[in-house]
Design brief:
- With 227 residues, the protein is α+β, with helices and mostly antiparallel strands.
- The protein has 2 domains: 96 residues, Proliferating Cell Nuclear Antigen (Box); 111 residues, Proliferating Cell Nuclear Antigen (Box).
- Helices cover 15% and strands 39% of the residues.
- It is elongated.
- The relative contact order is 0.16.
């Protein structure tokens, strides 16, 4: 088996969420942060063996893969290791016990969202740039009934006088006032445009429009809907 460049990109992104990963077989791979506030699922071109394959340090594994231009993965008969092979070069890489690794144990069922919107790659880049320039980390998404746009504010919610950046985006009219808060550090997502669904149950879904990857990102507890 070989890993496509697209799958390697997904794995690099997953490594930023959690250095552990467990492959459960098939063509779907998942990860979850240690704090359990970020989870992601991706559908990839490859089909993995129907055995639990645990990698303790995904960045290390990807670093080993980068030693080769176009390697092939050859799994051992007992699936305790994989040989990474190209031409006359190879590396034997041993898997870790999946029971000691952090991985999703159940499927997240996204509640019916109160808010849906589309964020472009440029929108997200602007938010990140603003957070870095202003030294703040909160992303606040707000609207009231009758508002023409959804307002996204990058700020510090604990400081009423904090400098802030505002961005207006299109979205459906609000049926009730809301104030949904995210920590921008949790936006560990692959670059691209996203369809975003936000629930008052403090969970959101981010679906990439061009790559078969979805993220579930928790909201901050100070968020409110209808208040």
């Amino acid at each position: 088996m070989k890993l496509s460049n697209e799958t390697r990109d997904v794995l690099k992104n997953f490594a930023s969420i959690n250095s552990n990963i467990v492959f459960n077989g098939g063509n779907e791979i998942k990860t979850m942060s240690e704090a359990k506030n970020i989870m992601s699922t991706a559908t990839v071109a490859e089909t993995f063996p129907d055995n639990l394959l645990g990698i303790y340090d995904l960045n290390e594994f990807l670093g080993v893969m980068s030693m080769f231009d176009d390697p092939e993965l050859q799994f051992s008969a007992d699936y305790n290791s994989v040989k990474i092979v190209q031409d006359r070069k190879s590396v034997n890489y041993y898997f870790s016990d999946p029971s000691i690794l952090t991985s999703p144990s159940k499927v997240i069922t996204m509640p019916d969202p109160e808010v849906t919107l589309t964020l472009t790659a440029d929108n997200i880049a602007q938010m990140r740039k603003a957070a870095s320039a202003l030294g703040v980390s909160d992303v606040v998404i707000t609207a009231n009934p009758g508002d023409a746009h959804i307002t996204i504010r990058v700020t510090d919610v604990e400081d009423a006088t904090a400098n802030n950046f505002e961005l207006a985006v299109d979205g459906p009219p609000a049926s009730a006032p809301y104030r949904f808060i995210f920590n921008i550090a949790n936006f560990k997502i692959i670059q691209g445009d996203y369809n975003v669904r936000i629930s008052s149950k403090l969970i959101s879904s981010w679906t990439n429009e061009n790559t078969a990857v979805e993220y579930f990102i928790a909201l901050e507890k100070a968020s409110n809907y209808g208040g």
